[in-house]
């Protein structure tokens, strides 16, 4: 499939001068103000959209207690089962959201996630817990649909700001979640932390009930089940193979068979999707240079940003042991407090991007974010030995990460139509999850290369943390190189306004 160069989205036509210019300016300024209904709508979307981040942090911090309670060495499946279910469910969710309305699909997925949360917290043994986590993974696509719904629920000039606020709110939530998880685990144990996730999912469902339904952008006809199963199954097998590579060995029959089966399924998926009239994901979108380069170029560095959070967890929480471990030996609470400034800056950066892209190309903002994040990771590689250094380097990384998360959404709005928005967000989520699995594998391999095993636990030396941060910086630079192929982009407001002026294509008949 060749990438064709298409012209940049048209800019809005020039408005001729008229004698009521002052009145028009006042009207335009009034449009910039947010109504109470819009603020309620925005607030209602933030928690369902970012609950996945909060749940991930709390679940990750609960794993040590869960592993000891059930005496299992397979704790990796606590997270992997959730991820695999999300990957399989995402293509179905995106298509169904276009067919029946995103709000309706999000509520159904959140209800399924609630069932999974209940099975997890009430599980009598570890296999049942893994099953519950897999069911809970059905909540995952809600984050994708929330971002796609923003374009449907807000006026064109407010789309970028709304996306920046929703995406950037991860900074505040990722700042508060470690504090909350530390308190819950210390006071109530792992079941107390998981009961909080149950309550959080209930709140998310109530918030979604307050969100208006979105337009249907596809006819409620035949669902491309074959395409969805091939895509979800293929990606799940690839991620599974990557996740088991370190334990089973990369040359083991199980890893090679899973990897080969996954790649074969993905190859068949591409063939099928290019032939069906209503594909589960429109791969023809990747035949255009702008969406292809934006989606690929943005998924790689975001994976590095998310994966790099694990470095600080090992660095801060592992104890200092002479000649064995160069950890700092901090408590979970102190580590969370140290991360507060970076979390606040990440949130502020997301809002700042929403304002910046009103007058600046999102591509330029994206390049700035990549440079800042790569620089922050490089600095952290050499300056991570005390609280002051970690706060300062965290501020740089938090700023870069906030720009990236909000900038990605601004670029997607600039290169796809409203009808393609959900598919683009779904494809972006899938790519980020796959690259995250690969990046995590690289990260753990780098850490393990300079570690000492004591009583069955691997402890890391200072050089391991240095090399891990440099590896993540290199992945961000790789994303920058891919992003250099992104053509000139229109401002998100111009693209959204163009959607309003362009008549929607008729839906195909069932």
How are the SSEs ordered, and which strands pair?
Layout: H1 21-32, H2 36-70, H3 76-100, H4 102-122, H5 126-136, H6 141-153, H7 156-168, H8 170-209, H9 225-248, H10 253-273, H11 289-317, E1 320-321, E2 325-326, H12 332-338, H13 340-356, H14 362-382, H15 387-415, H16 421-448, E3 451-454, E4 457-460, H17 462-483, H18 492-501
Antiparallel strand pairs: 1-2, 3-4
Helix pairs in contact: 2-6, 2-7, 2-8, 3-4, 3-5, 3-6, 3-9, 3-16, 4-5, 4-6, 4-8, 6-7, 6-16, 7-13, 7-15, 7-18, 8-12, 8-13, 9-10, 9-16, 11-15, 11-16, 11-17, 13-15, 14-15, 14-17, 15-18, 16-17
Q: Treating each run of at least 4 consecutive H or I residues as one helix, how many helices?
A: 18
Write down the CATH class of the largest domain: Mainly Alpha
Main β sheet profile: 2 strands, antiparallel
> How many structural domains does the protein architecture include?
3
Please tell me what the overall shape is.
globular
Do you know the CATH topology of the largest domain?
Growth Hormone, Chain: A
Low-confidence stretches: 1-17, 21-30, 502-510
Round the mean pLDDT to the nearest integer and report it: 82
Beta-strand content bin: under 5%
Reported CATH architecture of the largest domain:
Up-down Bundle
Helix-and-strand structural type: mainly alpha
> Largest beta sheet: what is the strand line-up?
1-2
End-to-end Cα distance, whole Å, is 28 Å
Rounded to an integer in angstroms, the radius of gyration calculated over CA atoms is 23 Å
Helicity level, as a percent range? over 70%
Order of helices and strands: HHHHHHHHHHHEEHHHHHEEHH
* CATH superfamily placement of the largest domain: MFS general substrate transporter like domains
Count of DSSP E strands?
4
């Amino acid at each position: 499939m060749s990438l064709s160069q298409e012209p940049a989205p048209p800019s809005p036509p020039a408005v001729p001068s008229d004698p009521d210019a002052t009145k028009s300016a006042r009207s335009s300024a009034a449009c910039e103000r947010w109504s109470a209904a819009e603020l309620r709508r925005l607030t209602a979307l933030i928690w369902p959209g970012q609950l996945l981040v909060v749940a991930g942090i709390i679940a990750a911090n609960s794993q040590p207690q869960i592993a000891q309670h059930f005496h299992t060495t397979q704790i990796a499946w606590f997270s992997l089962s959730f991820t695999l279910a999300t990957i399989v469910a995402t293509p179905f969710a995106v298509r169904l959201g276009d067919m029946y309305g995103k709000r309706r699909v999000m509520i159904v997925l959140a209800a399924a996630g609630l069932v999974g949360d209940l099975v997890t917290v009430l599980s009598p043994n570890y296999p049942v817990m893994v099953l519950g986590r897999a069911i809970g993974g059905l909540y995952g696509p809600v984050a994708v649909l929330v971002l796609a719904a923003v374009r449907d629920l807000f006026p064109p000039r407010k789309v970028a700001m709304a996306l920046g606020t929703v995406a950037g709110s991860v900074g505040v939530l990722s700042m508060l979640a470690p504090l909350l998880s530390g308190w819950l685990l210390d006071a109530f144990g792992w079941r107390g932390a998981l009961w909080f996730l149950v309550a959080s999912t209930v709140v998310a469902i109530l918030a979604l009930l307050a969100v208006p339904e979105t337009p249907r952008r596809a006819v409620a006809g035949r669902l491309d089940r074959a395409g969805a199963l091939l895509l979800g199954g293929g990606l799940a097998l690839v991620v599974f193979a990557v996740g088991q590579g370190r334990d089973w060995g990369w040359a083991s029959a199980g890893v090679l068979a899973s990897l080969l089966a996954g790649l074969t399924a993905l190859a068949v998926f591409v063939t099928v999707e290019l032939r069906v009239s209503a594909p589960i994901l429109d791969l023809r979108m990747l035949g255009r240079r702008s969406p292809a380069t934006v989606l690929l170029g943005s998924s790689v560095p975001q994976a590095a940003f998310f994966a790099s959070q694990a470095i600080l967890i090992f660095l801060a929480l592992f104890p200092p042991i002479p000649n064995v471990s160069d950890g700092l030996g901090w408590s979970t609470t102190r580590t969370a407090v140290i991360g507060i400034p970076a979390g606040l800056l990440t949130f502020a950066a997301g809002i700042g991007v929403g304002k910046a892209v009103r007058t600046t190309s999102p591509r330029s903002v994206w390049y700035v974010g990549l440079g800042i994040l790569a620089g922050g990771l490089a600095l952290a590689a050499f300056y991570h030995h005390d609280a002051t250094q970690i706060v300062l380097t965290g501020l740089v990384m938090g700023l870069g990460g906030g720009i990236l998360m909000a900038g990605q959404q601004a670029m997607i709005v600039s290169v796809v139509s409203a009808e393609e928005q959900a598919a683009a967000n779904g494809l972006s989520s899938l790519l980020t999850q796959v690259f995250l699995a690969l990046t995590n594998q690289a990260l753990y391999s780098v850490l393990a290369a300079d570690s000492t095993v004591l009583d069955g636990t691997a402890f890391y030396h200072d050089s391991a943390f240095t090399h891990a941060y440099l590896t993540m910086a290199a992945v961000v630079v790789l994303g920058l190189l891919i992003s250099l192929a992104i053509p000139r982009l229109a401002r998100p407001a111009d693209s959204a306004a163009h959607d309003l002026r362009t008549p929607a294509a008729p839906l195909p008949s069932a």
